[in-house]
Write a structure and sequence with these properties.
- The longest helix is centred in the C-terminal third of the chain and has 20 residues.
- This protein has 200 residues and is an alpha/beta fold.
- The chain has seven helices and eight strands.
- The radius of gyration is 16 Å and the shape is globular.
- The strands form two sheets. Strands 4-1-5-8-6-7 form a six-stranded mixed beta sheet. Strands 2-3 form a two-stranded antiparallel ribbon.
- Bound molecules: zinc ion.
- Zinc ion binds next to loops.
- The site of zinc ion has 5 residues, from loops.
Length: 200
């Protein structure tokens, strides 16, 4: 039996480090979270760090072409930023599937202790549209694990324990997603059953 794949991308790449927060950059932490997720994730596929967003999307699309669509999942890992230092917590961007995004955000928050900010539609993002969500043809989500512009979140994710908790939570949720059955457009699924499994 073939299993669904999870395509995991650590946001930004070798020539774009993202925001700098005190002693670390966003891309540095994204990679650490991804590397911890790797240890737990079943059937993960990892987008090479030297690819920019456009090439990362192309990389995923090429992989998708080479396998059956069994309800694969693509997740892009980021950290958020706000001028308002009180804004903190985890949020997940989506284009089509509000409930999936809500479920991932709730799960990661529960496992890390970060505030749950829930699901956000792509149009609420600073860029207004997100290629990762728009151009990838399997289920895709973009997680903003926390806001290092907030003192609590910055300390939390700056420490290895925070990175481990976040990475493991993402991987565990993806594994549950896969165990819960196929989410491909081609297959009908029992949504209530799925959401029940995912939020446990
Ligand atoms: Zn980012």
């Amino acid at each position: 039996m073939k299993h669904q794949r999870t395509f995991l991308n650590s946001g930004h790449h070798n020539n774009d480090e993202g925001a700098r927060y005190g002693f670390y950059t966003e891309s540095e932490i994204n990679k650490k979270i991804r590397d911890h997720a790797k240890k737990k994730l079943l059937n993960g596929r990892y987008i090479p760090d030297n690819l920019d967003l456009e090439h990362s999307i192309r990389w995923v699309e090429d992989e998708l072409k080479s396998g059956d669509d069994l309800g694969d999942l693509a997740i892009d890992i980021h950290l958020n930023f706000s001028k308002n230092k009180n804004v903190k917590g985890c949020e997940v961007y989506f284009l089509h599937d509000h409930s999936l995004a809500q479920s991932l955000s709730a799960y990661v928050s529960k496992k890390t202790g970060l505030t749950n900010r829930g699901a956000r539609h792509m149009s609420e993002s600073r860029l207004k549209n997100l290629g990762w969500l728009e151009q990838i043809s399997c289920n895709s989500l973009l997680i903003e694990v926390c806001y290092p512009s907030n003192d609590f979140d910055r300390l939390f994710i700056g420490y290895p324990m925070g990175q481990i908790k976040a990475g493991w939570a993402i991987a565990e949720w993806c594994n549950k997603f896969h165990l819960s059955g196929r989410l491909s457009k081609r297959f009908k699924i029992n949504r209530n059953l799925l959401l029940n499994i995912l939020t446990k």
